[in-house]
Design brief:
Chain lengths: ~280, ~120
């Protein structure tokens, strides 16, 4: 049977892609951020997961607001990155896993989550930056990735209560898949940040750390928040915390926190890296 | 419980704003293509017409008024692609919206991260 062995939270901001492309990892600005990653890379290289289920949000590469899926997932065997318009380097294709993807899609719709199911899906920095952070030099081709995309741009957006439930439904779907696969779940984005408006630059370290703590021990408590609460407490783009919440939902039971590195600011954001292992 | 109108300095991209902003956002979404960016650079006014921007949206674009673009329904995801054409990053855009220089905005971010 397929088994979820753990989860990772990580930032996915485009500035990271530029920093890696330009070799800035050891500069004073970036070092405290990149220094957090080796323990997570080591764990992934030891555990050798077959599949990564990756929660992210599209920032206007695949999806425009002409048709904006609330929840979308890929079922393809390969995904492509493309020009996002502002000059971050385009990266090599990402390997998919269509058989498990379709199993999850069937199970989710059966379970009441009416996903938009995509056989072609351009994946943006929300997905590519985390993969390159975990396997630098674009060495992620051996890992099969299932992208799950959550609307974090246009209200109404799915609420934390719903994204936790989506994650749990994905967790149950994976555990009912017959093949022996090791699966790790990535929740990418956040944490507190606001790019737009006179309130731009808002960061809330205390709230971010509280969220990381609750993701470990009491994820249900995060469902008390509405998306507007997240905006108030963490800034307009803190709704990306929904991806971290969905990831934690997919881990189903209790977890052990193996590693954490919180650093702010990176670009305009609070960055929360955390490695969780299923008990 | 926070509501749509209770958070200062924040314009929510909800349904009515997304409807209002549609031409502006559609134009900025087109900037994913290099040929569209070239076409915009060659004749901005013609490009506004092509996407049927409202007068409010054209004025905000002409003046590089980011807050004005947001008030006209702009989504920061697409406006960021326009900022890329101008060679601006999110710290530059943060400075423009808050009345700070880019360096002042970066220092503000560092201070925000310390609290």
């Amino acid at each position: 049977m397929a088994k979820i062995i753990g989860g990772v939270t990580t930032s996915h901001i485009p500035a990271i892609a530029n920093a890696m492309a330009n070799g800035l990892e050891e500069t004073p600005y970036w070092k405290p951020f990149f220094d957090g990653y080796p323990p997570v890379r080591d764990w992934l290289n030891e555990q050798k997961p077959d599949v990564i289920i990756l929660f992210y949000n599209d920032h206007g590469l695949e999806f425009f607001i002409d048709k904006k899926p609330t929840f979308a997932m890929g079922v393809a065997d390969e995904y492509y990155n493309s020009d996002e318009g502002w000059g971050i380097p385009t990266i090599p294709p990402v390997t998919g896993e269509s058989e498990l993807s379709w199993h999850i899609a069937n199970s989710l719709v059966e379970d009441g989550f009416d996903m938009t199911i995509c056989q072609e899906m351009k994946v943006d920095h929300g997905l590519t930056v985390p993969l390159n952070l975990m396997w630098p030099g674009h060495n992620y081709g051996h890992v099969k990735v299932i992208p799950v995309c959550i609307n974090c741009e246009q209200h109404p957006m799915p609420q934390p209560k719903r994204t936790l439930a989506l994650g749990q439904a994905i967790g149950r779907a994976v555990e009912s898949f017959e093949d022996d696969l090791k699966v790790v779940v990535f929740g990418t984005g956040g944490m507190s940040h606001q790019l737009d408006g006179e309130r731009a630059g808002f960061i809330n370290r205390a709230f971010d750390i509280e969220c990381l703590d609750k993701l470990v021990s009491d994820p249900e408590s995060l469902t008390q928040y509405s998306n507007y609460d997240l905006v108030e407490l963490g800034g307009a783009q803190a709704v990306e915390l929904n991806m971290l919440i969905a990831m934690r939902g997919a881990l189903l039971g209790e977890v052990t926190e193996l590693h954490r590195n919180y650093h702010a600011p990176i670009s305009n954001t609070g960055s929360g890296l955390m490695l969780l292992e299923n008990k | 419980m926070a509501s749509q109108d209770s958070i200062p300095g924040t314009i929510m991209l909800d349904g009515p704003m997304a409807t209002k902003g549609y031409p502006l956002n559609k134009m900025c979404y087109s900037f994913n293509n290099a040929s569209a960016r070239d076409e915009f650079r060659a004749d901005e006014e013609a490009y506004y017409e092509k996407f049927k921007l409202t007068e409010e949206q054209k004025q905000a674009m002409r003046q590089r008024d980011v807050i004005g673009m947001l008030e006209a329904g702009g989504s920061i995801y697409y406006l960021a692609k326009f900022a890329g054409i101008l060679g601006l990053n999110v710290q530059d855009v943060g400075g423009l919206q808050t009345g700070m220089t880019t360096d002042e905005f970066k220092a503000f971010l560092v201070k925000q991260g310390e609290v």
